[in-house]
Write a structure and sequence with these properties.
Elements: E1 9-12, H1 16-28, E2 32-35, E3 39-42, H2 48-56, E4 61-64, H3 67-79, E5 91-94, H4 97-105, H5 119-129, E6 136-142, H6 148-155, E7 159-170, H7 177-182, E8 188-191, H8 194-203, E9 215-218, H9 221-229, E10 234-237, H10 243-254
Parallel strand pairs: 1-2, 1-8, 4-5, 4-6, 6-7, 8-9, 9-10
Antiparallel strand pairs: 3-7
Helix pairs in contact: 3-4, 5-6, 8-9
């Protein structure tokens, strides 16, 4: 039996190495994904700040806000001749289940994952776990990450060391995308971070009108807010801010169930940029 996404053409804007999870989920629903990575993940301009942090060690908390941060952090642990044992004696927090699972696969126990996977909720959970005043917190993150987590931790009295673990860059424009959009060959455009929104708009030269006939689907309200800022009209905003949540919201929207396209949250779990 065909589902509500069957036969629909869906633009996937995630980085190349992360696109498969969403594409596979769309294929399972009968949709046809078109992978156009709007961003690519790259190493920092310099490894020195991250390497110095690893060398210092002895942090009370190490906080990871993405699986990419985990990946690059472990690359530098290996370069320093150490492994997951580096974390012994401290505690580890992850922004969401995918990041937590990436850590566990590498042998690192995760002490804290908030119920709501946004920076503000993570600060609250850390503060509930123990007083943060004077605690040393290492935050490996993207070069374009929001400052909400750093500010929140500092407001709780933590000594925060935020270091760039990776960069997010705009990808090259694919030659057929503008024509596909102009011809109405893409029905849905998915965005899983604010950076994918901004980068895709750069690829199309800021022409929001090219996406007027496209149903814009966002993984959560932060991403949807960025979409609004650049002139897009997100009609689908997932209530559960994960890939399965995004698929569910798309399914609800196209089956006429409007719960999947509201900004009202049930279990809020958005991954940040």
């Amino acid at each position: 039996m065909k589902g509500p996404l069957s036969g629909r053409t869906v633009l996937v804007t995630r980085p190349h190495e992360q696109a498969a999870r969403l594409s596979d989920a769309l294929i399972a629903e009968g949709a046809s994904p078109i992978e156009v990575p709007a961003i690519r993940i790259a190493a920092p301009v310099s490894w020195a700040p991250l390497d110095s942090a690893i060398q210092r060690g002895s942090y009370d908390w190490v906080v990871f806000t993405s699986a990419n941060a985990v990946r690059f952090f472990f690359e530098r642990l290996s370069a320093a001749g150490t492994d997951e044992g580096w974390f012994h004696g401290g505690r580890v927090a992850a922004i969401g289940p995918q990041t937590a699972e990436t850590l566990r696969v590498r042998g690192v126990p995760v002490d804290l994952v908030p119920d709501e996977f946004v920076a503000e909720a993570l600060v609250a959970c850390l503060a509930d776990a123990e007083p943060l005043s004077g605690r040393r917190v290492l935050l490996p993150r993207a070069d374009i990450a929001r400052d909400a987590l750093v500010r929140g931790l500092q407001n709780e009295g933590a000594d925060v060391e935020a270091v760039v673990a990776y960069r997010t860059e705009a990808a090259d424009a694919p030659p057929l995308l503008l024509d596909q959009l102009a011809r109405g060959q893409i029905e849905i455009a998915t965005f899983t971070s604010s950076s994918t929104v901004r980068a895709l708009m750069g690829i199309v030269g800021g022409r929001a009108d090219l996406l007027q006939r496209v149903v814009v689907a966002c993984i959560g309200p932060i991403t949807a807010g960025t979409a609004h800022q650049v002139g897009l009209d997100p009609r689908i905003v997932a209530n559960t801010y994960t890939i399965p949540g995004l698929i569910s919201a798309m399914r609800d929207y196209f089956s006429g169930d409007t719960r999947g396209k509201t900004g009202e949250r049930h279990a809020a779990v958005q991954q940040p940029d």
